[in-house]
Amino acid sequence: MQPFEYQRPQNAQEAVNGVDAAHAKFLAGGTNLIDLMKQQVELPTRLIDIKRLELAKIEEMPGGGLRLGALATNADTAGHTLVRQRYPMLAQAILAGASPQLRNMATNGGNLLQRTRCYYFYDPAYEHCNKRKPGSGCAAIEGFNRIHAILGTSTACIATHPSDMCVALAALGARVRVQGKGGERVIEFADFHRLPGRTPEIDTNLRADELILSIDLPAGPYAAHSAYVKVRDRASYAFALVSAAAALELDNGTIRSARLALGGVAHKPWRSDRAEAMLAGKPASQQSYVVAANAALEGAKPFEHNAFKVEMAKATIVRAFSLAAAGGDKA
Ligand code: SF4
Fold first, then answer.
1. In ligand 1, which atom is closest to the CA atom of 119?
2. Ligand 1 centre from 159 Cα, in Å?
3. Domain count within the chain
4. 120 lines ligand 1 (CB under 6 A)
5. Domain with 283 in it: what CATH number?
6. Is the CB of 266 under 6 A from ligand 1?
7. Is residue 60 situated within a structural domain?
8. Tens of pLDDT, residues 192-237
9. Of the candidates 313, 1, 261, which has an alpha carbon nearest to the alpha carbon of residue 150?
10. Euclidean distance between the first and final Cα of the chain, in Å?
């Protein structure tokens, strides 16, 4: 591991002021960053340890929403009574996301900033990775691409976003509150992560000096009918091949509104406005879910080893909506 400076600021403003070094990084749970440093993928010259800042509360917001502190652990968030009552799909997604040991260390803010688990990104022995080394090419496009994206890819990168939690947050329409040197701002979840385009080295629209303060969940009508379904190679310690966060607002068997986001298929949590619009006003039936699933995967572009993801994603969507309509799995 390359040597680095270590700082422990007393408050958020001091933390933000500390990121003036070109390769400064915030350190919270460290569950991804430290791995990447050991692998020589991330080479920060300064670590700003924010773990002791007062950003770990989970609190109610006016109007029935919930504010998840950026430094609340994934374990505390998934186990929180109000999260389980109001956003059970989020609790399910977090529980599906990692081992208990990792959930005890990993923070909510860090979960949003996880980097892809593309094998070529993680191993500097591979020369061609535009995300790790801009302009070097993409080994995955012509390589082994079983775990890679099928939606929103570019000729520069076909990596997927690894988070489960973020898929549920996308479906729930969360907002991310951040603080930079110039003050606070709010980023809609849909605008937080980026598609790869020509700059896959940039994962999010967070500015270099910005610190995540909280993730704010709006009040919503989806608590009674939501589900998170994750398909993976083994039952634990595995990232999603495909996942779906699905929620329904029902009125006597008719869908008043729907939410759908997918994981494991794109460079960011993939919310499908098209599928949601198709479900509004339709009966809560298998047939409706199949139509929505087809709409959600329209335009999918699989690669040599991941064509199976298209049908898998459709089946996962249908299952998630079926579970949601039946009252969902409770976390
Ligand atoms: Fe790198 Fe993206 Fe290609 Fe993976 S898919 S090798 S992360 S450029």
1. 4
2. 5
3. 1
4. yes
5. 3.30.390.50
6. no
7. no
8. 999 999 999 999 999 989 999 999 999 999 999 999 999 999 888 8
9. 313
10. 38
